[in-house]
Amino acid sequence: MRPTIGMTAYSDKCSDTISFSLELIDYLWGRRQQTSRDPESGGQLFGIINNYGIIVTTASGPYSNDMRSSTRYQSDPLQAQKEIEQQAKRGQLYLGEWHTHCQNLPNPSHYDITAMKALVASSSLNLRHAILLIVGNNHIPNSFYIESFGKTDSIKWNMIGLSQNETSAKRKNFTAEEIGNA
Ligand SMILES: [Zn+2]
C-alpha cells in the first residue's frame, strides 16, 4: 500500500527530501506532550527510501520500560531493537528517533544532540544520516523539529505541509503524490 504523504521536509544543504505519511503524523500528533506535567513520549521512526527520497511511514513507541520524565525520554533499548527487527521483516528501514517536548517550537536539548551523535557513531546500520524528530505541541508543521545526524555533520530540515485544522477533504490534495514502488 502506498503511504499518503502529509508533510515534506527540505533543506538547502541537501537535495534529498524527507516525507512523512499522514498516518505517521496522526500517530505522533496524538502523542504530543500537552502539559509540562506529562512525561515525554518517544520511539523509533521507520520507512523506505526510493526515487522520491526518504519516506517515513511508521513510528513505534513509547514502550512500557522506557525512561520517561517531563524533560527526558529514552527508549527501552531491548524493545527498540525488537521493533527494528520486526519492521525490517516488513521491508521498513530504521530511519531514526522521535520524542516529544512540551514546547510550541521544539528545540533539541544538549542531551538530545549528544544521544543522536552517540547513536550514529555506534550504529552498524547503513544509513548516512539518522533522523531526529521532535514533536512540539502547538501547530503542525511548525511544531515538528527535524534534524538529521551523520558521523561528521548534521542537517536541519524545514517542514512544509498540513495544519492540524485542515479537513480530510483538503488532505486529499496530498494523496495525489505518486511515490512509485512504495
Ligand atoms: Zn528532547
Question: Overview of this structure, please?
Answer:
The protein is of the alpha+beta class and 182 residues long. The protein has a single domain (5-176), classed as 3-Layer(aba) Sandwich (Cytidine Deaminase, domain 2). Helix content is 21%, strand content 36%. It has 4 helices and 10 strands, in the order E-E-H-E-E-E-E-H-E-H-E-E-E-H. The strands form 2 sheets. An 8-stranded mixed barrel has the order 1-2-4-3-7-8-9-10. The longest helix is centred in the middle third of the chain and has 13 residues, at 77-89. The protein is globular and about 40 Å long. The N and C termini lie close together (7 Å). Mean pLDDT is 86; it is low at 164-182. Residues 99, 101, 108-109, 112, 134 line the site of zinc ion (ZN).
